[in-house]
Each structure stands twice: as structure tokens, then as C-alpha cells.
Write a structure and sequence with these properties.
356 residues, four-stranded antiparallel beta sheet, 28% strand, 434 Repressor (Amino-terminal Domain), 13 strands, alpha+beta
């Protein structure tokens, strides 16, 4: 085996180790797609004793959902496919002298509302963030919620990079799926965490809508370390819509909601009833979430629950930004559910005015 072939074989071996995928499992998957490779050949390829054919490389590339160029050209080629900061002082892709992105290492559960028209369901994926040499790589395995003819769930896989801009306080997650020719980006608010990990972040995703009508689409994306239960998803679903702080809600619906909140919080009944004074009544109520927040002593979890219920009933203005309040309300909604299912360990949790 020459040096070129040996390099390809070691890249395959390294990718199997990263995914904790055994050689026998790779053989089985190659057989499943109709491009079988003998177990003995895989063993010799990974040990550097045998060069692989174009057919074998194509089979392995399809199974691992990576382009053949990845194994032929290596990391530098993939890096150029996305973006190279060219030693920028403010844009980092994981330079060894700067650990701005170390807080993102590990796995996130990614949630977002389906971008298909007339479809109101939350999609779930696992986002893997890991250091790869001089940069940080991404791999997203997305459950499409659709099954194939053999009743197996269809998983779409993406690879990509994460970049951080210090001056703009933003992190960019750039992902691509070679098979369907899709590139998408998620932009989130970035803050330096030192030794802390980013636990929960809302971001804006830019992609192409699903279904027959494919148009550029912006949607909210939630990244959270722990998988959410169905109850937690119900709590955060209203916040996944493209809604902002100014909410337009039918008069009867808002008054009914306040009456329900009064019954649920009898010790704050008078205070809640006064919230009507801070909403602009037209043929609907024009409600500013920020103003309501200042006029009530509901704790953070109670207020997040209250706002979620308003969102469920409201006709909301379209919103194209992610503010610190978005991150905070979703985080608090997650904690409501976590507190009901298990005792929440608050050690190390920041004060109210600090970010999660």
C-alpha cells in the first residue's frame, strides 16, 4: 500500500472510531445498501494491508454519509468547503490559542418546528460538537419523523463547522447534507463561559422549507443538553414560533386567560387582574411582554408559563431576532418540567440577572 492509499484507510479507521462503529457493523450496513464488502477486506483496509477500490470507497462513503472527497482530500478540503477565518482576530474556528468554542463541545438535542406548510410538529435531532485538530466539527443526525417502506425512521445526516465572532457576540453553525444538496445555517448568541458549558440556546435557522413548495425559510432552533420529555416540548412549543414581545390576542381570549391565572394564583389575584391596564385594548389586546414582566411578582417559572399560554392563543407579530429573554424563557420552561419530573440541582446556577 502506498502512502496515499494508507492515508485513506486511516481516515476510514479514524471515522469508525469516532462513531464507535465496529468493522462488522460497517460490513452489515454496506450489505444493507446493496454494496457489500467482505469482512476480511475491511479488516485489511483498516490495518493498512490492502488498498481499497473505488467501489469499496463509494460503499463506505454512502454508509458513513460522507463525500468521497472527505477520505481522499482530508480535513483541509472540508474546512475550505465551509469557511476559513484566515487567522482573523475576531472570527475563530477553534485556533489552539483561543478556546472560545470549548463551551459547545459535546452533544446537544436540537428541536425546531417543521418547516413544511400546514405541519405543526417539532423535529428532533442530535448535534455532535467535537474538536477536530485545529477546528471544531459538527455532525447532525435529524429524525425526519417519516418512515421508509420498511417502516424504518428516516434519519438525515449533516456535517459542518462552528465559527465564533467575538466582536458580534455570535456563533455560526454551518451544516450541509451532500446527498440532497442542502446547506443550512443556525446563528446563536455567543457569550464567553470560561469553564462553563452552554446549556440552552435559542437560535435562528436559515434553510429551505420542506414539502413541495421549497422557499428560503427562517425558523427558530432550540439547542439543549438534555433530551426533553413530551411535557417539556409542550411547554416550549409556543416559544418556537416566530413571535416577539408584542403580542396581538383576542380580547375575550386574553380576559379568559387572566381569569384562569387568577384562580391558579389566588394570592396574586388582584395583581393579575390589573395587568389589563397595561395592555392596549382595540378589537384585540396589544400586549407587551416586557411591560407585563415589570408589573407582576410572578416568579420566573410562573411568568414563562403565563407567556407561553398567551402565545398559544395569540396572533403574534413576526419576529426575526433572538434576544436574551428568548433564551431565558425557554430555559425556564424547561426547568418547570424538570422540576416536576425530578429535583432540580441548582448548584452553580447563576443569579437571576445572569445568562444561562
Amino acid at each position: 500500500m502506498n502512502d496515499f492509499d494508507y492515508t485513506i484507510s486511516q481516515r476510514i479507521k479514524s471515522e469508525l472510531e469516532k462513531r464507535n462503529l465496529k468493522q462488522c457493523q460497517l460490513v452489515a450496513k454496506c450489505t444493507e445498501i446493496g454494496m457489500p464488502i467482505a469482512q476480511s477486506d475491511i479488516s485489511k483496509i483498516c490495518s493498512g494491508k490492502k488498498s481499497l477500490s473505488a467501489y469499496q470507497l463509494a460503499s463506505i462513503s454512502i454508509v458513513l454519509n460522507l463525500p468521497m472527497d472527505f477520505f481522499v482530500s482530508g480535513e483541509n478540503r472540508l474546512r475550505e468547503d465551509f469557511c476559513n477565518p484566515h487567522d482573523s482576530d475576531t472570527l475563530h474556528d477553534g485556533n489552539k490559542s483561543n478556546k472560545e468554542m470549548a463551551c459547545y463541545v459535546g452533544d446537544f438535542h436540537m428541536y425546531y418546528l417543521s418547516t413544511a406548510e400546514d405541519e405543526d410538529k417539532i423535529l428532533h435531532g442530535i448535534l455532535h460538537v467535537e474538536e477536530e485538530g485545529e477546528f471544531y466539527g459538527l455532525r447532525l443526525d435529524l429524525d425526519t419523523g417519516v418512515k421508509d417502506i420498511s417502516d424504518k425512521t428516516i434519519i438525515k445526516s449533516y456535517v459542518g463547522r462552528i465559527l465564533v465572532s467575538d466582536s458580534l457576540g455570535a456563533a455560526y453553525l454551518i451544516l450541509k447534507n451532500e446527498i440532497i444538496g442542502e446547506v443550512c445555517m443556525v446563528c446563536i448568541r455567543h457569550r464567553s463561559y470560561n469553564t462553563k458549558q452552554a446549556e440552552c440556546r435559542m437560535g435562528l435557522g436559515l434553510t429551505v422549507s420542506a414539502g413541495d413548495v421549497k422557499v428560503p425559510t427562517v425558523h427558530k432552533v432550540l439547542l439543549v443538553r438534555e433530551e426533553l420529555s413530551n411535557q417539556a416540548l409542550g411547554n416550549i412549543c409556543p416559544f418556537m414560533k416566530m413571535a416577539g414581545n408584542d403580542i396581538y390576542i383576542d380580547v375575550e381570549k386574553f380576559e379568559k386567560l387572566l381569569a384562569e391565572m387568577e384562580k391558579e394564583n389566588p394570592d396574586k389575584s388582584e395583581e393579575i387582574s390589573r395587568l389589563l391596564n397595561y395592555a392596549v385594548k382595540k378589537s384585540f389586546y396589544d400586549v407587551s411582554v416586557d411591560i407585563l414582566r415589570k408589573q407582576t411578582s410572578l416568579n420566573r417559572e410562573e411568568f414563562a408559563y403565563f407567556v407561553a399560554r398567551i402565545y398559544q392563543e395569540a396572533e403574534c407579530a413576526i419576529n426575526y431576532k433572538i434576544a436574551s429573554s428568548d433564551d431565558l424563557r425557554v430555559y425556564e420552561s424547561v426547568q418547570i418540567n424538570r422540576g416536576k419530573e425530578q429535583k432540580f440541582d441548582r448548584r452553580g446556577s447563576p443569579p437571576l440577572n445572569e445568562e444561562k
